[in-house]
Amino acid sequence: MKNHLSQHKLPKHVAIIMDGNGRWATLKGLPRWEGHREGVKRVKEITEASAELGIEVLSLYAFSTENWSRPPEEIELLMMLLEEYLERELPTMMEHNIRLSAMGRLFRLPESTQKKLQETIEKTSKNTGMILNLALSYGGQAEITDACAKIAKEVKEGRLRIDEIDENTVKAHLYRPELPEVDLLIRTSGEIRLSNFMLWQNAYAEFYFTPVLWPDFRKGDLIKAILEYQSRERRFGGV
Length: 239
Prior knowledge:
Blueprint: E1 13-17, H1 21-27, H2 32-53, E2 57-64, H3 72-95, E3 99-103, H4 111-123, E4 131-138, H5 140-156, H6 167-172, E5 184-187, E6 206-209, H7 219-230
Parallel strand pairs: 1-2, 1-5, 2-4, 3-4, 5-6
Helix pairs in contact: 1-2, 2-3, 3-4
């Protein structure tokens, strides 16, 4: 299947809403944490596959602002799994020349998680291959709100005039303005909604929804999504 991919039409930026860990565990009669643990394995597989295929940026919706409303013990487990992942996968990131990035209200993460995240970002900062961008404590509305607050502060301080504000101004104040807009958005588990994920960056993304639960999502499923993307004509509002 990989042989059918066009290297000239690869999406530069792929974003994935990794949905279905809990349902996967429930269907198998397992506790929810088993679904999350299996989901982490897919993060490893899909990250490595994306780097091998030549994707420039892979953004993963790992923990949303809404996820803070989950039971404390589940949040604690998710943070532990994240720290374990960062510790275990650092050698793999270095081997595959992957640079780690993160976006969101990261200050809300536990101190130990913030520390491990920053350490991994710094250790991979010289890598020149694919960027793995983790959305943590992230919400699209929160991102745009925070951007507006930064812009308002600059106006108040006289560093920016109101008539200078345009789309580029807003983009420059997003969490990761250096990243390209999303080309392909994938959501697993059959849900058909954005769930507050990268609302600005997905303005002209191609959407791909699959019923496959995230713990069952494999390299072949990723290639299938990219093939679908390559079959579409992107006009960006033109003719």
